[in-house]
Amino acid sequence: MGRTRVTLADVAAASGVSVTTASLVLTGRARELRISEAAERRVRSTAQELGYRRGTLATRPRSGRSQTIGFVLGAVESSGLAGEVVKGAVEAAYRHGFMLFVGESGGDPAVERALVEQMRDRRTDGIVFAAVGTRVVTVPDGLRHGPAVLLNATAAAQPGLPAVVADEVEGGRAAARILVEAGHGRGVHLIGAGPGPYDVPPHGIAAVERLIGLREVFAAAGIEVVSAHRCPKWTPEDGYRATRELLRLHRPKALVCFDDRLAFGAYQALGEAGLSVPGDVSVLGFDDHPVASWMRPRLTTIALPNQELGARAVEVLLDVVERRRLDVRPPSIQRVPMPVREGGSVARPGV
Question: Is Repressor included in the keywords of this UniProt record (predicted)?
Fold first, then answer.
């Protein structure tokens, strides 16, 4: 009888960790996702002792598939959020019996091309090409040579390439509805983008679509945005500066910040001006960045469903692989809902 093949689940069980943790260690993601060095050493040692081998051409199943997926991640603006996306992708891949190979490009087009070529050379069944922060991207030529899905991105020159993105327009609507339902009919200001559809940071899709959703609901409710402050970067410093500038001219009742980091800066500026949240000014954010949970009061924010985005991208890719066999074209864009994370930063406006 031939030797029984050691699986990832065997390594995880023998190491006393979850399958996800074992997979992350063996695909080189342990440090970024804050897996302890002790756990990493234990998994690697156990894998070596058991003779575990990740999927290769030599162990390719009879179906002709390698049971592997390539995952190319662009510039990492926030390793925590990127880690959540990868975790969702790893778990979805494992559920379907696939291994995920992850490579980071740092946003360098040459590195992106090299990663895609290497993954094609390994005969991966498909590639997820992911950006951190929804944007229009120029994709490497190698993505045309096999199944591929974009994540948090749409292609500048290949609009037919399947994509998975957050439903930013509906996220904008949800943010506006929160303020409308709280009774905010005047004194609303935007921090980060607007007022026009082109007053947004460069290369960003999220700002444009969030603005569309906000404007739609505000217009239907008869609410006119008093002012909007475009920020080239969505950092706490930008939020602080934009809010200080706003306070020189206006006494706001509500701020819609296009990113939680902008909201963090806005909190500081409001506090310096002697204004409380939400007693004097209601504040809303987007993304559910880790900083949102540390703000006092906790920020109400429209969350990016990072783990679900990663998982959905893998699901769509596997669907693409199957549809290619059947010569059927998959839907071009799938939008994942953005849930509301309730905090204490929105209240009915005072007199």
Answer: yes
Number of structural domains the chain divides into: 2
Question: Within a domain: residue 339?
Answer: no
Helices 206-220, 168-181: inter-axial angle, 10-degree rounding = 40
Is residue 337 included in any domain, yes or no? no
Q: Tokens representing 3?
A: 């030797």
Look at residue 246 and tell me if it is in a domain: yes
Query: Is the entire prediction scored with pTM above 0.90?
Result: no
Residue 44 sits in a domain whose CATH number is 1.10.260.40
H runs (alpha helix) in the chain: 8-15, 19-26, 37-50, 79-95, 109-121, 168-181, 206-220, 236-247, 260-272, 306-326
Distance between first and last Cα of the chain: 82
Residue 190 makes CB contacts below 8 A (sequence gap 6+) with 211, 214, 225, 227, 228, 229, 255, 256, 258
My answer on whether 175 and 47 are in the same domain is no
Q: What is the pLDDT of residues 237-251, one digit of tens each?
A: 999 999 999 999 999
46 and 172 in a single domain? The answer is no
The tens digit of pLDDT for each residue in 224-281 reads 999 999 998 899 999 999 999 999 999 999 999 999 999 999 999 999 999 999 999 9
* Residue 197: predicted pLDDT: 64
pLDDT exceeds 80 at position 125? yes
Last residue of a domain, one of 282, 304, 326: 304
Separation of alpha carbons 112 and 72, rounded Å: 7
Q: Which domain holds residue 226?
A: 168-304
Q: What is the predicted pLDDT for the residue at 134?
A: 79
Q: How far is CA 50 from the centre of its chain?
A: 35
CB–CB of 244/269 below 8 Å? yes
CA distances from 335 to 5, 163, 183, 198 (A): 39, 9, 29, 22
Structural tokens at position 102: 């992850």
The CATH number of residue 194's host domain is 3.40.50.2300
Q: Is residue 15 part of a domain?
A: yes
Q: Please name which of 93, 92, 157, 148 lies closest in space to residue 120, comparing C-alpha atoms.
A: 148
With beta carbons less than 8 A apart as the criterion, state whether 152 and 74 touch: no
